[in-house]
Amino acid sequence: MDHHLSHLLASPTIFSSLIISILFLILISLKLVKLLRAIFSGRKVVSPPGPWRLPIVGSIHHLGGTTSSSLPHRRFKELSLRYGPLMHLQLGQVSTVVVSSAEIAQEVLKTNDLIFANRPCTHASEILLYGPSDIIFSPFGHHWKLLRKIASLQMLNGRRVRSLQSMWIKKEVSSLMKSLKEEAGSCVNLSEKVFVTISGITSRSAFGKKHNKGRHLEAIMQVSERISESTHETVVSHLFPSWKWLQVLVGETRVVEEICRNSDLVLRNILVGEEEEEEDDDDEEEEGECLLKTLLEMKDQEAPPTLVEWAMAEMMKNPRIMRKAQAEVRQAYRSKGHINETNIEELEYLKAIIKETLRLHPPAPLMAPRECTQTCEINGYTIPTGTQVIVNVWAIERDSKYWGSSAEEFLPERFVKSWIDYRGSNFEYIPFGAGKRICPGMGFGVGIVEIVLAHLLCFFDWELPSGITAETLDMGEYLSSTLRRKNKLILIPISCI
Ligand code: HEM
């Protein structure tokens, strides 16, 4: 053995090859150590788990189906039970992660708020909502801050709702009460009536009193409805954003451009009308109240009427809750002789009903998608720049981990004397989102819902149409731009005060 070794070392060629081999081995080991270190230090790119994918469509085929469980928020929840609270889905060209736990929602919306403060903008929304110049899609920055400031100061705060109450809200709500009284004892389409009332209040808040004649209201409502419906007609734009040719081919571009033309026409008519009126009337009271564009674009216009519908439907299914709420509102009415901003503040049970409705039926069940602007790590997984982030608010707000065994029940009592609030710091309850882009219409929206519900409960008893019972009342959902009732809510008002 020794003889062999000395022979090898004596030969210069063999010696140099040996040295090279040793160096090569060292190099390989160093690489291996580096790789292992990277794996164990977590620096390697680790994608969140998700279902298997097909070429081109990615994971889309996992979302299909015709039953109600195929609604995106329900299907995402089912998939998250298999793949975890941070799940990756390849939706066509769009790399998406779905968040289904309060802890990870907090990591995204609070710990990494700035990184996720943008929203993905599709070609359709760019045309429809004037792209990044709009408050919803504007990237986080100076322009967006300015829009938020204007929106909060001018029309979207609760105090403003209250100050307007004596004017438009009173007017709209009394006309709702009047029409319900006229139709008392017969079936009424409550969904439609509430939608008209709330759209009236919202539109008047934007137009100011000069435009109280309601001449533009119908046009605005038509355009809003059309924008909302178009969600289903702009699928290609959402899943294959860079394939503009396909959007043209399937007719999406035509649909979007047509809606855009109509909405511009409505806006032009309102603005021209406004200028004409300003020449006649120099009243400056309405200065700054014209956030028409913002208002028209706001898909969330639908959210308050949707909430009233769900709250009324849940109370029809739970007569005990309805009676308790009516007793509270009527007591307040009897002691003051009216329902106004002051005694609404005292209606603790009514507020709990609204909170519980927002928990079980969040109008935006998947919030509004956010976009990752800088590669980062969430819950130990790498989220690359450009990933779309969907927070499944609906799943989190029904999770028994946070809400106990009664998570699926409508139980307003859970919010009575509770510290849980929707202002974005309790991540198990975020119907208005959280962080920098939390909904600026929160106070405005809840304010309107409180007023309308209080009046419906105070002045009427409610019955179901014949043949329908509390148990059989349909609670099917339909997801357009908000999570609405599949069928309109038809009820019988019985005048009682
Ligand atoms: C009352 C029911 C409402 C609910 C449940 C609701 C919910 C939401 C949610 C979840 C978001 C996304 C927040 C996020 O990304 O963190 C949002 C954004 C927004 N909401 Fe609402 N909303 C409601 C009413 C309103 C109303 C009445 C308005 C105005 C008329 C409004 C205006 C907006 C705007 C402008 C944004 C975008 C904010 C931004 O990106 O900076 N919302 N809303």
List the helices and strands and how they pair.
Layout: H1 2-10, H2 12-41, H3 72-83, E1 86-91, E2 94-99, H4 102-111, H5 123-128, H6 142-154, H7 158-182, E3 188-189, H8 190-207, H9 217-229, H10 235-239, H11 244-249, H12 252-280, H13 292-297, H14 303-317, H15 319-336, H16 341-345, H17 348-360, E4 370-371, E5 376-378, E6 381-383, E7 388-391, H18 393-396, H19 400-403, H20 442-459, E8 460-463, E9 477-479, E10 483-485, E11 490-495
Parallel strand pairs: 2-7
Antiparallel strand pairs: 1-2, 3-11, 4-7, 5-6, 8-11, 9-10
Helix pairs in contact: 7-8, 7-20, 8-14, 9-12, 14-15, 14-17, 14-20, 15-17, 15-20
Bound molecules: protoporphyrin IX containing FE.
Protoporphyrin IX containing FE is lined by residues 135-136, 148, 156, 202, 298, 300-301, 303-304, 307, 362-364, 367-368, 431-435, 437-441, 444-446.
